[in-house]
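Case study 2.
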Amino acid sequence: MKKVKNVFICLLSVFLLSMGLIPAKVHADVLIEIDDSFWRAHQKDCDYLYRSYTVNGDQGYAILWESPVSSRQEEVLVNGTSISTNWHYTDGKGETWCAVSTGEYSQGYEKISGWIKTSDCLVNPDYISFREAHEEEFVEYDPAYDNALAGLETVVLWTYPCSGKVKTDRMDAEGLRDRRVFDICWKDSKGRMWAFVGYCYGVRNTWICLDDPANPELEADESVIPRDAVVYPAAEDLPDAKSGVTGLAIAAVLSVVAVTLVLLWFFFVRKRRKE
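Prediction:
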């Protein structure tokens, strides 16, 4: 009888512990950066790559999840919402997720508001999109352009050729001349030569028009990057985000089960063997 009583007390203690862990986690979600925890636990499996996306779920919205392994929904994002990320993670099923950046930083880490499937988004055209569309057309740098920046103080760097989107219009021309960074080039439909600038003074992955390097008014040509993806209309009514089980809560429950099994084995199996 005493043994049964002891087992009951232990199991009750474990149960109360689990009940304390789970609610504490749920109520602390506002303060604890759960997504950062997932990133820290899977940092080696995450790829650092800045890209921006537009939400494009087939139901008119997409779910922002607590993490790729959680059933907790942080927010429901309507189609057309712009998001940005520095981190991508591919799960065991081959699904790629991105951590949605809030633009804030804490203790050296960026804050992320949740994770979203990239299949529920459209990537905003960028230098990667341009490379994927035109890599076969890339050519080597022509020395005839060695003096293209002569006499210029600043030049314009673009997100990609004919994008119409300026990354900076104040890049120091002297720095580019000294660095000899032009190793990949591309010629547009008007015969203008563009050169890729991987890095210069903190600015990464941009392009410069060698035939008109200081002109910030070069027109955009949307045909440069074909856009054949289906664009789903935004939903008029959004469902509420569902509060599922968090990753920590699952871990707590599994811990409770493990402790319970150990206690049962200790009090019944091991004791009985000794007797």
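The longest helix spans residues 247-274.
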